Structure formats: C-alpha cells, structure tokens
Amino acid sequence: MNVCKRNKKLLNMSGLFICLSFMMTFLLASCGQKVTIESYAIIPQPVEVTMEKGGFTLSNSTTCYGANVGQNDPTIKYISRVLRQWHLNPVLVGKPETNCIQFVINDQYDNQLADDGYTIDITKDNIVIAANSEQGLFYGFQTFAQMLPEDISETRYSKIFLTACHIKDYPRFNWRGSHLDVSRHFFGVTQIKKHLDLMAMYKYNKFHWHLTDDHGWRIEISKYPLLNDVGSWRVNRDDQPWGEASPAMPNEARTNGGYYTKEEIKEIIDYAAERYIDVIPEIEIPGHCCAILEAYPQLACEGDDTTYTVQFGPYWPPRAILCAGNDSVLTFLKDVLDEIIPLFPNKYIHIGGDEAVKDNWKRCQRCQKRIKDLGLKNEEELQGWLIVEIEKYVKRQEKSIIGWDEILDGEVSTDATVMAWQGTNRGRIAAKRGNDVIMTPTEFCYFNFYQANAEFQPPAMPNSLITMHKVYEYDPMPDGLTAKQGAHILGAQCNLWTEYINTPEMAEYMLLPRMCAMSEVLWSAKSAKNWAQFRKKMARHTVRLKANDYTVGTGSFRPWKKTEKQSDGTLLVTLDWEIEGMHVYYSVDGSGYVRYTKPFTMSPKSKITTLSFMNSILKEKEYEL
Ligand code: ACM
Ligand code: ZN
Asked: Whole-structure pTM over 0.90, yes or no?
C-alpha cells in the first residue's frame, strides 16, 4: 500500500541513492532504525504460510532483480517505483547473487497458482517472489508489502530482519469486487485512485463504478451535454441529514456535484489496470433516472407531468422511469452506450435494472401500446423486453451485461451476469438458471449499513447493522448448488452507497475495517480463514492503514455469545468480540459484573448482560446478549 502513500518529500530519493550511495550508507548507519519482524499479519490470509528458522536482513545494500521479466514491464516498473518510495533499490534485470529480492516469472506454468497466484520464499540469502504472470507477481508484492514495517515509506530503517518463511497463495474467487456510488456523492479522481490503492492492497480486482442515479450523472457524454450541464449538479445540502434535507429554493445555485471527463475516466482505468483492477461502469436503466429526466424530460412517459430535479435527499419510492414505449429512449440509451463502451476495456457493462417503479408505465399510452404490440403480459415483462433489447445491443459490440437481480424477472439470456442483492436465494436461482452470478446480498455486503451500535456512530442507513464479524463469517457460495451450478458463482462484492457519505474520510470509515474482512471472504481459502487470528491481524492493519492515511472505522464493540449444552443440562457460554484489546464485563441474571476471561457455565434460563471497555472507556452500554 506503500503505493498509496504519496510521500512527496521522499520522491527524489531514488536519484540520491544512485549518486550518493556512499553518503547514504553512512547516514543510514548513523541514524537509521533496526527492526525485527517475527510474525506476519497478512490480509487476506494466504493459502499456506510456513514459518521457518532464521531469516533475511533487508538493507539498502539489498539488490532487486527480475527473472524472465523486462525492466519496462508494467508491473516491474510499478514495483520499482514502490521500492524507491521505501528507500530500496529498484528492480534490475540480470543474474542475482545473494542479499537480493528476486521477482521471478516461473519457467514452467504452475497450474495451482494459475494466473494470479504466487509464492514467496524468505531464506537467509534471498527473498524470492515467484509467479506464472506479472499479475501473480503483483499480488505477491502486495503480500510482501504487508510483511514490512507500516511506516516503511517514512522511516529510514537501516536493517529490517524478516523471519524466514514459505508462502503459497492463490485466490478462492475470481470476482473480488468493490462498488462505489459516486452519484449520491461525487468523489474526484484523487479519491478514486486512493480507493483503487486500497483495493489493490487487499487484492480486490473489480471496481464497480455506480456512475448514474437520481442524484447525479457522473460521466461526460458528448452527444447529450445536458446530462453534465444539468444532470451532474444539485444544490448543496451537505450540512443537513440526507433524509431531512430542505428542497432547493427557486434559482438557488447548484454547487454540489461534478462528473468525470473522458480523459479522467481513461486516467482512472489506466491506474486501475496497473493494479490488475477491471473497471465496470454502471449506467442505470430504466429507473433511478432523475438526472436524465431533468436534463431530457422528453424521455419520460406520456402523461407524466412531474418536474424532475437532481436533488439532495431521498425520494421514495423512486418513480422516475424512462419511457419504454418511446423509441427515442432506445436511441438515447444506444447513443450513450456508444460513448461508454469504447472507453471501458473490460468485458462488462452494468445496466442497473433495480427498483424500477412502474406506475408511470401503467398510465402511459406509449408503454401500454408497446406491451400490446409485443404481446407482453404486463409492465414487468416490458422491463424484461427493454433489458433484452439493451443486452442485444451490448452483445453486438462484444460486451456482456451485468444487471441487478431484477433482470431475472424478464427473459434475459443466460449470458447476462446477475448481481444478487436481494438475498442469497436470488443468487441461487440465477446460478440454477445458468447465469453467472456476483453475490452482494444486502445483509452481508452493504457497507453503507452501520458497522456498530448506531448510538455511537455517525449517521448511516437507518435501522441497519452489518458488523465486521458478520462480514467475516459470510460465505458467498450458496448451499444447494451442484458443482456445475456453483461454477456460476463468480465471487462477491461489497457495495458502498453514499447517501450518508459525503467525504472521502467517511467513505473509508465505512469501508474499513469491513473491506479487510471481506478480502478474506473473497480471496482466502476457506481452510485458511481463522477469526481469532484475523482479529489480531486487524489490530496491526489498523495501524498500517492509518499510517497510510486511511480513516478506519471503529468496528463494533458489542460482544456475542456462543453456547454449548453440557451433559448436566447447563450451558457453556463463550463470549467473543471484534476488537483486539477490548475488555468485556458480564453479569448473569443481574449479579455483579465480572471481567470475562474464559468460558463459563450458567442455567439455560439465565440472562447475560455485558459492558464493553476499551482503554478503560465505556464503549458499549449494558447490552443483553
Ligand atoms: C440496490 O441496492 N438497489 C441494488
Ligand atoms: Zn411510457
């Protein structure tokens, strides 16, 4: 991550290394720090980590060599850039000896590692990071970065002793996604890059960019300039809660918003590609389209006399819908896709499809005529028809659609990928039908939900709660699928809707630490996951993330219990919690509070209440488990 810490004052150091190495050695020897790293806190947990005796001492005399790679290969250039930020030598190509970090593309393809796996071997002589591809090297390097001190970019370590080990690693799922809604609140290029750095650090590889919605259109479209001149801006109500914002005043300036130019989109796609992240744009149809309808009201249904405006705050149910009976709507959508498709090199275009309230279609003569002419049963089938029309158009350009799971309600082809958000069963149904599926059920994957007791948190989605532990326990593979059906589950993703999130810091607060937990769900082998170990690792990652300028949420201070019936009829109660270093006191049936140190027994009828403290500060009030 390292990578994401843009430490400007140190950028020129690579030149100094080359020209003044003697003087540097003297300086490091005289004022550098030494550090010994005995155990590693790697997130996501690799498939295999074997600790060994002895270790390697990394210093500024350590060289870095690549084998079967070129110095100008993109990943080698990336690695060299980061090594320089750490005051280490960049990667050279040649024959390494000892005291060296080697970046090796394997001579023979290792099927188990496939394209994105890697090995790391640390011995007393060398560190070897090996993979079948540059992508595998990239992931190996991300792991290696987590083996170094968290302040490596800032502190000049004279020597870093790394305990010998062997690591073998490859991912469980191919789709390791992070979604970001930039419509409800707009985040600029710098913030998006920082988010991509975070994704890379935890080996996420799909950035789902929610670019259009009722609250702002965020991508430049040359043929329809009003999408940007009108649809990308609204009056500013960031000082008011999302659910209670006052309406816009007549002629009030629209100062909140923005959009990405095509140049900026390309810049972000390139930045993501360097980190092996595909960028998937989402263009919402047929609902969530206030921004379109304010800019181009002629695309609304006949008889719909609503004045749509891009505004702050909810409008529920979201009645804005494009008229499916109007051929101009199809022309508009195809024109927009014609500008979007060439920009995004990955194979998917997300076309939304969720939460389209069809009241206007019921009243609209054009929509009703379309239903009649096509012999459709109802408005649901009309949405199905529209999605299929768009799917056919996207396919003709050798792309595939992704849609929220409402697309299952129509006759969408099995080539479409379904994003299952309305519960695990929607994913199961889609996989049985033969569609590829990305699991993102609300109850585990919506990181705009509170992460802890709302009483102690900044405002988030009302009446919601998804703790880090809940995320950690999630398994994206629905039960009841055959192996063939299970192969359609591509993976999962966390979604960040930004109604309540109006700063990049708040976005990070909501993403972290849950994104770390999700990375083990997505990447780590089931057998490698271990909650107790993860909790400890997370304490160290919190320090690492903060050292790299990320805002980390609190996690939840509420403990939970597990009970086991004993042969004498009592219950053996084990308490657990998310935060390393937290102290939990419990009381059984109102008896005095005692500090929890080990499992205890009680009658099955008894009630337990708890209090949580961190550094002697009460963090969670009395709570009945
Ligand atoms: C969604 O949360 N409406 C996909
Ligand atoms: Zn209509």
From this structure: yes
